[in-house]
Amino acid sequence: MDRLIRVVVAAFVLAGCAPELKKTVAVTAVGEVTGPAVTSMVGPAGGSVRSADGKLELLVPAGALAADTALSVMPLSVTAPGGVTAWRLGPEGTTFARPASVKISFGEAELKGSTPNALRIAFQDSQKRWQAIKTSTVDSTSITVSTTHLSDWSLLLGWQLRPPVATVLPGRSLTLSVRFCNTVPLDQGTESELVSLVANCQEDEGLAPIVGQWAVNGTPNGSATVGTLVPGSPSATYVAPAKAPSGGPVAVSVELNPPALGKVLLVSNITIGGDLPNAYAGAVSYRLKRGGSGTSVLGSELIVSALLSFSKGSGSTASYDLVGGTATLRQFQKETGITNCRCTAADVAGTIEANTGALIIDTSANVVSELQFSAVFTVPLVCNGSTDPACANMSGPEVMAWALTGMNPACTGDQRVSFTSLGKVDGSWNMYCPVNPQVQGRIEEVSWSFDGS
Hints:
Largest sheet: 12 strands, antiparallel
Strand content: over 45%
Low-confidence stretches: 1-16, 189-193
Number of helices: 2
Mean pLDDT: 85
Number of strands: 34
Structural class: mainly beta
Helix content: under 10%
Number of domains: 3
């Protein structure tokens, strides 16, 4: 049996030159449900409920509940700083007379570019902040914390070398950077002994005092055979050798000294080689939700899926033109300004507009730096819910032109930064726009996966 380790995330104290760690508490959008709920009836005798993917388990001891309760767990989109996975535990408002346990399993996929002692479990409070549980039990495959309530929970990484995995063409360069997500004390009486508030993550010069030696396959700053490094803090530039070395991917590493925890080694595995294919084809899914209650914008929601194909353009070798595809409007609904009147539509085929799409691959960082396409839908609206005759009169066809471009600079969000092979480019981003008046209350989520040929 693996030895259990008690991990306490202590206050940040450094002797000598201290890092300039961010202290602004992160406030994020509430995660959106991404899959079905799993429900289990648990009563005074205790019991458990496990997520559909088996990665989260809620363990309730005897005496924690006074009556039978249908406990549930469902997966969520990740919004927490440094978040890896997220779930909603319900019913909301449920409390336990004795502490229950939230146990989250992890493996190599969750730890890429990081270390086990970077793991935290946090819950989102009513102010949309993330409260990280200070005391956890960690073994080689799981991390467990205690709780007396149910809410949204997330597994976080306090630090990571990014990208944790990448492919670089021979002779090309790649920028790697250390991301650190600080926590700050919670001034809330005795609660401050149990949790800390998660701050916004950073990848800037403030981390310089805790970033140490960079190396490639253990050689400081690398070599001509495995690639060289131009070290920085907290980032460095890796230059791949002219020829891929034998032995598979190279390991680019950096020493990190998280305050009060001692030195850890972060590793990114870089594959040298690969050619850009002549074409890419695959699927895109898109969801847009905006406005509604609490904003000055009428609420609406749009879900689109598309199958697209791209071929190499005449410009940059990493630039591809959209040559064909189909798009389907899976769901559409909007408020109308008439009390209780809402218009809906579903399953409408659209037309991909010619010469409106592009796919650009950044081979130095293995990211999709640009993804564009545009579609036109003739939407048969059904408007009802109101006794006002004007509501029903709004029903009928509506032509909608819609375009996907990229991350909106007026919004906050997260972009999955890299794929692992030029033969298959996949990724995602999500955006949340809480303030900008033109996109107020906008939540936008995109994911894509294209195979090369």
